[in-house]
Amino acid sequence: MADEPVAVVTGAGSGVGRLMARALLENGFRVALAGRRREALDGTASGDPAALVVPTDVADAGSVAQLFDTVRDTWGRVDLLINNAGSFGPSGSPDEIAVEDWTAAVATNLTGTFLCTREAFATMRAQQPQGGRIINNGSISAHVPRPGSAAYTATKHAITGLTKSISLDGRPYGIACGQIDIGNAATEMTAGISTGARQADGSVRPEPTFDPAHVAEAVLFMARLPLDANVQFLTITATTMPFIGRG
């Protein structure tokens, strides 16, 4: 086990985060599972000796530092970070969104991604052999918004800029960075979409979804590439979802 690559997955307690983590564990990675709820993380770990459960609030710098201290103390390095933790945040037009709800969405979706990246980048830069890979979970909303989603859409657009900056800043140190943008994977977080989602014309219509196992397969492909190759952006959607031509 000592030679197996080390991954950190945030938001690993449920949804696509759980599936990503399980795919990595089943394919030779040691995986630190980060998320707010220990019980959910334990469910993802399912007793696997290559899993390390570390309850973490990604919006809290001290909690994130403790996460990476634990990983370094346990395994000595970080080869892969998957920034998956996030929330939809508040819904409504900009004048209907409370400032504190906006701030909370930014703290989790954007600042949390930066805090984890900051720790992983420093570790990857200092370790020997040097380098590693960071994969950010963007969204279809990193391309186009849904109605009433200013906070979520703004943070996901920002993730794209952060991904590009990390890719550029990581070059001298062998640190690759890519982004996966997911549209309508069938998880608890997106359950309402299949029954009715608000459209650009104000109507509410069900949208197609797809098996989230395909997201885990895509992330595993990205994660297993050698560091001299990178998937910069990968978009995976339900084939007929209203994305191309949205609005």
Automatic annotation (TrEMBL):
Gene3D superfamilies linked: NAD(P)-binding Rossmann-like Domain (3.40.50.720)
Coiled-coil ranges per UniProt: none
Sorted UniProt keywords: Oxidoreductase
Keyword Oxidoreductase: yes
Keyword Aminoacyl-tRNA synthetase on entry: no
Family indicated by similarity: Belongs to the short-chain dehydrogenases/reductases (SDR) family.
PANTHER family, per the entry: 5-KETO-D-GLUCONATE 5-REDUCTASE (PTHR43669), BLR5618 PROTEIN (PTHR43669:SF12)
Name used for this protein in its record: SDR family oxidoreductase
